[in-house]
Write a structure and sequence with these properties.
Blueprint (H helix, E strand, L loop, with lengths): L4 E5 L1 H19 L4 H4 L3 H4 L1 E6 L5 E7 L4 E7 L8 H15 L4 E7 L3 H6 L3 E9 L2 E9 L2
The structure holds coenzyme A.
């Protein structure tokens, strides 16, 4: 597992670090329209950013006030080294600390197994969002 330093904060504190990762992954790699990537929920959410030893941001995730995990992204060259898992664990800690009883997310279908590793369970039908098949998942918190 790669060592990563996790920063936790608001969009005004961490947006300048989270934005380049999301731009690279969602806009450039996945082709998501730029106007759909940025929304008003960023300012209301808690954000986590994973940093290398050289202070480069390589992964990010957010937690909205209504307990949705989203915008989960790790830069391509850093994948499959446990960074996504550390980000997801950290966001679950944030949710528990905020008193949330469960969290939900809209998973891209190919990465459902990634979320299942951290005990999220799929529910409902598969649906299309920005041309990508998704399914809702949720996880109860202690
Ligand atoms: C999904 C994503 C965040 C995973 O990040 P990552 O750093 O590669 O994940 P990790 O290395 O922490 O993987 C944790 C576990 O999930 C597994 N996993 C990761 N990606 C997977 C995938 N696409 N399919 C199946 N299993 C996967 C890993 O093998 C690992 O298993 P292990 O604990 O048994 O070793 C990353 O692939 C990504 O940014 N993808 C593009 C953006 C995206 O799809 N975001 C999600 C939108 S819903």
């Amino acid at each position: 597992m790669a060592a990563v330093r996790l920063l936790r904060g608001t969009w005004s504190e961490l947006g300048h670090l989270a934005a380049p990762v999301r731009r690279r992954v969602f806009i450039e790699e996945q082709g998501i329209p730029v106007e759909l990537e940025w929304d008003e929920l960023d300012r209301a959410s808690r954000h986590i950013v994973g940093m290398t030893d050289y202070d480069t941001p390589i992964g990010t995730v957010r937690l909205t006030p209504n307990a949705h995990v989203g915008r989960m992204a790790v830069l391509p060259v850093w994948r499959r080294r446990g960074i996504g898992k550390q980000l997801l664990q950290a966001v679950l800690e944030e949710a528990a600390a905020a008193g949330m009883r469960s969290v939900a997310l809209s998973a891209q279908v190919p990465v459902i197994p990634f979320y299942e590793k951290l005990h999220f369970e799929p529910y409902g039908e598969i649906f299309q969002d920005v041309g990508i098949p998704h399914r809702m998942m949720r996880r109860a918190l202690q």
